[in-house]
């Protein structure tokens, strides 16, 4: 079966030539949730942005391919590429307040995409939005479609954006830290909702997060990222039962765990960081030779 | 047992609700803290946990008297500080220090780290051996002495939070308020900062109110915990007891909602293996 997303050997540099993605390869199978986990600056959001074609101008892809359901995005013209990304992917962002236009009502913001990108007529789009609001368990859809973003709670706004993401039946959703800004009880509800929607619709998700607790809940497979390099790749169950890379193990030990307070929140060993630095340097030497 | 450092009784705080303020006229008052009774024991880290809007930060601000209680009393080390004026508070301020969530915005961008750490010393009339004291403060948080000449933008998030700690501890206070001090940090940095705070609190005999939304962090760090919701204390007691046998549904829910970094075979019917 063709993968929903296949990234192969992707490298990116900043204006000054500094490498920020280091030959990243990963695959999201149809209907699979792959977590992309790492600390700040690891490049995890950047990979999501590369897939959605919204990298900032300062970042340049210099090598590698991104395939959406087998189609190489790099081989398409910019208009065709944008159409394909718009039709087949969607984003669930971290901060629902900044992702929504504060001066427009929720309803039209949700139908816009369906009308402008997929060419649906207004009535069909509206019916679809109602259906999705129902699926994300919004009890008063009439009030919500007429509301402005600030009139909804954080959890409600995130439900709206989840509904919007699934509305056009995308093949792939990029979820960029979608629960990070939420309270823990709301986070649990939203994670459950995303998982249920994902199953119901069979959508593949690239789930960007810094939280191994979220990884354990939501994903079937996981890529661990450090300094723009995938240092470990595994199915989620094996990652937690037998982490292979010392950095993965260090991250697990650093993550707070109330069930085992003394074995958690442990500082990362200097030796692990030194090993990572050496690994990155070696990768850059190997990469640097043919690229000058 | 020694008497507690803080004794708080019937504490209520009402603040103007600016969201409901009419264009002309006074904003209606909204009660943020609804009558709290608790003690903070000396030489211990007490966790204060709650979700957004629970009033935990307002409570912290009231302890260090950035916010004045509406009614009720806050007794600090034998002094009723509930309604003291700023001048009356001045001599007590050196013992009431705080560390904030975002060290980026709480450190002055135009001053060197050295002068930031020296500021509370100067304010309290300590003017001799300043550079020596700054060097000591930096050493205490495991930063090199040379950092005194740097500016906040030259530091990583973890280093900035170390500076925040160094500044708060420069006067060897009795009490430190730590409000969400690791929320913006990566887990690896978070672990270092918490370990550092724990070590210094032990060495310096500090009493710490550690405000956090993260129960796992509180479990690791605090001997006792106060669980808050909607301006009231839901339950309070030794951390072991609260986690071992929570008395209220709310606390149980809060604990159950924490995503653990391990596979949960029961979650949404996930099959283990």
Give an overview in words.
The complex is a heterodimer of chains A (292) and B (273). Chain A is α/β, with parallel strands linked by helices and 292 residues long. Chain A has one domain: Rossmann fold, CATH 3.40.50.300. Chain A is built from twelve helices and ten strands. Chain A has a six-stranded mixed sheet, with helices on both faces. Chain A has a four-stranded antiparallel sheet with strand order 2-1-4-5. The longest helix of chain A is centred in the C-terminal third of the chain and has 22 residues, at 270-291. Chain A is globular and about 60 Å long. The two termini of chain A are 37 Å apart. With 273 residues, chain B is an alpha/beta fold. Chain B has a domain at 108-172. Chain B contains ten helices and ten strands. A six-stranded mixed sheet of chain B has the order 6-7-8-3-9-10, sandwiched between helices. A four-stranded antiparallel sheet of chain B has the order 2-1-4-5, with helices on one face. In chain B, helix 4 (113-123) packs across helix 5 (130-140) and helix 4 runs parallel beside helix 6 (157-169). Chain B is globular. The model of chain B has no long low-confidence stretch (mean pLDDT 93). Chain A binds chain B through residues 39-40, 183-185, 187-188, 191-192, 195-196, 210-217, 236-237, 240-241, 250-252, 254-259, 261-262, 264-268, and chain B through 51-52, 157, 186-188, 190-192, 194-195, 213-217, 219-221, 243, 253-264, 267-268, 272-273.
Which keywords apply here?
heterodimer; A: 292 residues; alpha/beta; Rossmann fold; 6-stranded mixed beta sheet; 4-stranded antiparallel beta sheet; 22% strand; globular; B: 273 residues; 10 helices; 23% strand
Reconstruct the topology from this structure.
The complex is a heterodimer of chains A (about 290) and B (about 270).
Chain A: E1 5-14, E2 19-28, E3 33-37, H1 44-52, E4 59-68, E5 71-72, H2 78-88, E6 89-92, H3 96-99, H4 106-118, H5 122-135, H6 141-146, H7 154-167, E7 172-176, H8 184-201, E8 204-209, H9 212-218, E9 221-226, E10 229-235, H10 236-241, H11 246-254, H12 270-291
Parallel strand pairs in A: 3-8, 3-9, 6-7, 7-8
Antiparallel strand pairs in A: 1-2, 1-4, 4-5, 9-10
Chain B: E1 6-16, E2 29-40, E3 45-49, H1 56-63, E4 71-76, E5 79-80, H2 86-93, E6 96-99, H3 103-106, H4 113-123, H5 130-140, H6 157-169, E7 175-179, H7 187-204, E8 207-212, H8 215-221, E9 224-229, E10 232-238, H9 239-244, H10 249-256
Helix pairs in contact in B: 4-5, 4-6, 6-7
């Amino acid at each position: 079966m063709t993968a929903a997303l296949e990234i192969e050997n992707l490298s990116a540099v900043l204006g000054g030539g500094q490498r920020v993605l280091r030959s990243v390869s990963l695959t999201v199978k149809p209907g699979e949730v792959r977590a992309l986990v790492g600390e700040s600056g690891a490049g995890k959001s950047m990979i999501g942005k590369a897939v959605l074609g919204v990298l900032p101008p300062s970042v340049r892809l210099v090598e590698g391919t991104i395939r959406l359901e087998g189609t190489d995005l790099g081989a398409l013209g910019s208009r065709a590429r944008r159409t394909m990304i718009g039709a087949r992917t969607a984003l669930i962002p971290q901060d629902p307040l900044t992702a929504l236009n504060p001066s427009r009502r929720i309803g039209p913001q949700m139908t816009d995409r369906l009308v402008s990108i997929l060419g649906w007529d207004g009535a069909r789009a509206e019916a679809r939005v109602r259906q999705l609001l129902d699926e994300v368990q919004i009890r008063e859809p009439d009030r919500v479609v007429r509301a402005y973003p600030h009139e909804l709670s954080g959890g409600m706004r995130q439900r709206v954006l989840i509904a919007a993401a699934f509305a056009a039946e995308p093949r792939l959703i990029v979820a960029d830290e979608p629960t990070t800004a939420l309270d823990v009880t709301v986070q649990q509800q939203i994670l459950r909702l995303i998982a249920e929607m994902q199953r119901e619709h069979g959508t593949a998700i690239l789930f960007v997060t810094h939280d191994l607790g979220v990884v354990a809940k939501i994903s079937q497979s996981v890529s661990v990222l450090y300094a723009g390099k995938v240092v470990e790749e595994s199915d989620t169950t094996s990652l937690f039962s037998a982490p292979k890379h010392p950095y993965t193990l260090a991250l697990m030990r650093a993550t707070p765990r109330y069930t085992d307070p003394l074995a958690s929140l442990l500082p990362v060993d200097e030796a692990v960081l030194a090993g990572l630095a050496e690994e990155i340097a070696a990768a850059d030497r190997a990469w640097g030779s043919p690229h000058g | 047992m020694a008497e507690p450092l803080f004794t708080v009784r019937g504490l209520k705080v009402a603040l103007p609700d600016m969201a409901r303020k009419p264009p002309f006229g006074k904003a209606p008052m909204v009660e943020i803290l609804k009558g709290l009774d608790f003690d903070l024991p000396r030489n211990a880290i007490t966790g204060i946990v709650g979700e957004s809007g629970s009033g935990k930060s307002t409570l912290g601000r009231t302890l260090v008297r950035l916010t004045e209680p509406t009614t009720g009393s806050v007794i600090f080390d034998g002094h009723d500080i509930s309604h003291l004026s700023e001048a009356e508070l001045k001599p007590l301020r050196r013992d009431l220090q705080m560390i904030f969530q975002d060290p980026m915005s709480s450190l002055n961008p135009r001053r060197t780290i050295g002068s930031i750490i020296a500021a509370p010393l100067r304010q309290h009339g300590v003017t001799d051996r300043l550079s020596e004291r700054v060097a000591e403060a930096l050493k205490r948080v495991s930063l090199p002495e040379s950092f005194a000449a740097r500016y906040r933008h030259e530091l990583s998030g973890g280093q900035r939070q170390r500076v925040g700690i160094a500044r708060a501890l420069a006067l060897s206070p009795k009490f430190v308020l730590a409000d969400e001090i690791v929320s913006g940090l990566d887990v690896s940095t978070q672990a270092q900062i918490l370990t550092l705070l724990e070590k210094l609190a032990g060495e310096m005999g500090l009493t710490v109110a550690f405000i956090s939304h993260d129960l796992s962090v509180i479990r690791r760090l605090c001997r006792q915990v106060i669980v808050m919701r909607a301006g009231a204390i839901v339950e309070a007691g030794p951390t072991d007891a609260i986690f071992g046998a929570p008395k209220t549904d709310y606390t149980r829910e809060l604990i159950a909602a924490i995503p653990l970094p391990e596979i949960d075979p029961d979650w949404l019917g996930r099959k283990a293996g």
